[in-house]
């Protein structure tokens, strides 16, 4: 876990109640950085100096983090319309229950065979507004496969939680 955090990127710091943003710096290199050009929320540029206390508010923005309270936080969750509130939680729970099959699938997924495992590249490539037909087809098929794996996991739990995935099924025409 600490190795993972060491390789995450830090890009915010607080000074006197003010939040400053800066270009991401790998956590392991942060304290050795002499000074950082940062930006206030209003766009003003300032120079800040790294401090250990900056890690108190550091969030890695990966798929899940172990918090200081001992809970797991899923960062891929964002605010959804009310009828989709539990879709993300049910999706993640289903995948977690079906983790062995998920890991096996990810090792052989056609999506990764075509686009590789460079997550930085994938994040940039698939956050674009316009995707090629191949990219769109591949991401939809990948999403469908993941949704089916999540559903399998929820079926195993036998608590009728698949209903929460209905908005995702509709979105993917399943």
What are the salient characteristics of this protein?
8 helices, 6 strands, alpha+beta, Gln_synth/guanido_kin_cat_dom, two-stranded antiparallel sheet, glutamate-cysteine ligase activity, GCL_bact_plant, four-stranded antiparallel β-sheet, 2 domains, ATP-binding, 174 residues, nucleotide-binding, 43% helix, single chain
How would you characterize this protein structure?
InterPro entries: GCL_bact_plant, Gln_synth/guanido_kin_cat_dom. It is a single chain. The chain is α+β, with helices and mostly antiparallel strands and 174 residues long. It is 43% helix and 18% strand. The chain has two domains: 2-66, no CATH class; 77-171, no CATH class. It contains eight helices and six strands; from the N terminus they run αββαββββαααααα. The model has no long low-confidence stretch (mean pLDDT 86).
Quickly describe the structure.
The chain is an alpha+beta fold and 174 residues long. 43% of the residues lie in helices and 18% in strands.
Radius of gyration: 19 Å
Proportion of strand residues: 15-25%
Low-confidence stretches: none
What is the number of strand segments? 6
How much is the average pLDDT? Answer: 86
Count up the domains. Answer: 2
- SSE class: alpha+beta
Strand arrangement in the largest pleated sheet: 1-2-3-4
**Biggest sheet overview:** 4 strands, antiparallel
Reading the helices and strands in chain order gives HEEHEEEEHHHHHH
Distance between the termini: 37 Å
Shape: elongated
- Helix fraction bin: 40-55%
Per DSSP, the total helix count is 8
């Amino acid at each position: 876990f600490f190795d993972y955090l060491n390789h995450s990127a830090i890009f915010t710091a607080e000074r006197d109640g003010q939040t400053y943003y800066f270009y991401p710096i790998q956590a392991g290199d942060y304290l050795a950085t002499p000074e950082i050009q940062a930006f206030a929320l209003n766009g003003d540029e300032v120079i800040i100096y790294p401090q250990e206390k900056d890690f108190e508010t550091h969030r890695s923005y990966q798929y899940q983090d172990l918090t200081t309270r001992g809970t797991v936080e899923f960062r891929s969750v964002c605010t959804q319309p009310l009828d989709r509130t539990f879709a993300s939680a049910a999706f993640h729970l289903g995948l977690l229950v079906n983790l062995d099959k998920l890991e096996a699938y990810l090792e052989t997924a056609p999506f990764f065979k075509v686009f590789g495992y460079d997550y930085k590249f994938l994040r940039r490539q698939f956050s674009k507004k316009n995707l090629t037909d191949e990219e769109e087809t591949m991401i939809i098929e990948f999403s469908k496969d993941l949704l089916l794996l999540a559903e399998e996991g929820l079926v195993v739990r036998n608590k009728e939680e698949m209903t929460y995935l209905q908005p995702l099924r509709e979105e993917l025409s399943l």
